[in-house]
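Researcher: I need the complex structure. Ligand is adenosine monophosphate. Inputs:
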Amino acid sequence: MAVGDTYRALHQRSLSDPEAFWAEQAKAIDWTRPWDKVLDASKAPFYRWFAGAELNTCYNALDRHVQRGRAEQPALIYDSPVTNRKKSFTYRELRDQVAKLAGAIAEQGVTKGDRVIIYMPMIPEAVMAMLACARLGAVHSVVFGGFAANELATRIDDCAPKLVLTASCGIEPGRVVKYKPLLDQAIELATHKIPRCIVFQRWQAPASLVKGRDLDWNEAVAAAQPRGCMPVKATDPLYILYTSGTTGQPKGVVRDNGGYAVALAWSMQYLYGVNPGEIWWCASDVGWVVGHSYIAYGPLIHGATTILYEGKPVGTPDAGAFWRVISEHKAVALFTAPTAFRAIKKEDPDGKLLKQYDLSKFRTLFLAGERGDPPTIEWAQKLLGVPIVDHWWQTETGWAICGNFVGLEPMPVKLGSCSVPAPGWNLQVLDEQGKPIAKQGEVGALAAKLPLPPGTFPTLWNADERFRQAYLADYPGYYKTGDAGFIDQDGYVSVMTRVDDVINVAGHRLSTGQIEEVLGSHNDVAECAVIGVADELKGQVPFGFLVLKAGVDRPREETVREVVQLVRDRIGPVAFFKTAIIVPRLPKTRSGKILRGTMQKIADGEPWKMPATIEDPAALDEITGGLKTAGYAGKG
Ligand code: COA
Ligand code: AMP
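Model: Output:
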């Protein structure tokens, strides 16, 4: 057999007989009721996996392991260089604490199907909060700590939660981020009224509690009775996770229970090659999809040990932090974003710090969140001497669209490619008319034939029509990924760029349209545009162009400073919006479309062509001049 044959046979079977394929994989999960239908296509294009089945995701993540010999195995290792704390929880301890927390949540009147917002830093209580909601059949929505109050308020209004679980603060190197005032402000801004908050007090910045609304976490848990697992339908939502849309209104990606559990169990074994009982580390944040799938649910469903790391790749305390964690906890694999490795490479290009640590247990490094740039991958390959696997996925998909399935059959790594499609993914490269491009290696829109495999999103929260319009309408019968790329003669996929206004900043997804909305709300600004410019460390960073209203007569730096602050206040520090320039006008086509693509090429010093439809070519000279002054457009 040739290399890749095992993968190809499996992938082929997942497409030719998806129901048999996924029914087989579903044996890894404990169900309280079997399914009536593996794939319910009766409401296509809204497909449902394991229709009629029931299970509880928390039971699959905790209780069953306690019952079957893993009670004393560490389930979660908390490693926090920013607080100098480490703590390990066995499966039994985690199950017991989650059951009590579920009791405290239920005491507040939360039942199956109710929404709960979780706004927490990287502490074990964040994972417990997710699992406790799952235990009750409640639907959690985790909001990343780097978002501002306004973003939190938007999410509160969209999912109308009964309860918010939070902590008094998060800890960023050199600064304590007080979460509670942000939450109070968000509650004030939101139309939906929050009856109850449970607040985990951290000594670094204890929060004042609002009488009659806020409860102290420890007190609420101490007073609660443990709760058992409530079976839910496989097709019921486990969580909602908001991601950038094209406007200020984020998209509420819905994740179901059954298909997700099956996909995660499969991927832990065959994509990540991790065995139950082994130690796995995903250095993301619980606020992102990667954190949901591979800090919380995936490793626990699989019976592995998950590491929860509250720190950075560099500066906590140095660029050897990742090696220290891998070696100390004997992790067999790490999943992070290329940006983290660029940060390490910048600080310690020769990998001197690695020499202090024993990484003998370490087998594979997985990178995702942005394209794995070849120089970073090559550097990591040389340094670590293990396979470096770039894999591609999205908040919407819940797990990888493409990857190198090292647990099934390692395939050669090709630099710049995220390898081959995951089971159930029938990927095509489409031209502008939506027809598959026959020529291998030609770039087009990456789209997947419906149905998507289990674990992917069945819809957007309360927005079936938006789901259809945003993802299914452009190419009937396909899911539009929003990414462009190509597939080579060996079936390897390369993802090149987004086709919309989404940019990728340090592995975090941001919408330039959303930043533009904030800039446009400033009193001085008549018009604006935001593009993503290349950044050595973060991949891309947002860059703003402002056209001021006639008659605005104040120092330009003041306006720029204010819009930068406005983005931080409205979207949050995660937007990393630091630079804007003032220009006399924006380059547009004759029909009024802003030429963001050309502006980006100019900013990055890439070759560009004068668009035939440009209204006034001089506008591009003005932009180029401004960019050069700001240190961009180097090669012109
Ligand atoms: N709460 C509050 N603020 C937060 C935050 C949180 N949870 N997380 C980040 N921020 C803030 C940061 O402090 C920073 O603020 P600043 O502008 O005042 O410095 C800003 O948001 C941007 O954060 P980030 O993009 O994380 O930049 P950084 O300089 O702190 O760290 C990296 C850079 C590369 C080390 C970091 O982005 C990283 O580790 N990325 C990897 C992500 C990942 O692994 N993803 C998994 C795959 S998707
Ligand atoms: P998010 O939903 O935040 O996970 O962002 C998803 C987007 O990140 C994708 O649509 C891609 O644009 C980008 N992305 C994620 N992983 C990769 C990868 N391995 N290669 C290229 N782009 C990636």
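Model: Summary of the prediction. The chain has 18 helices and 32 strands.
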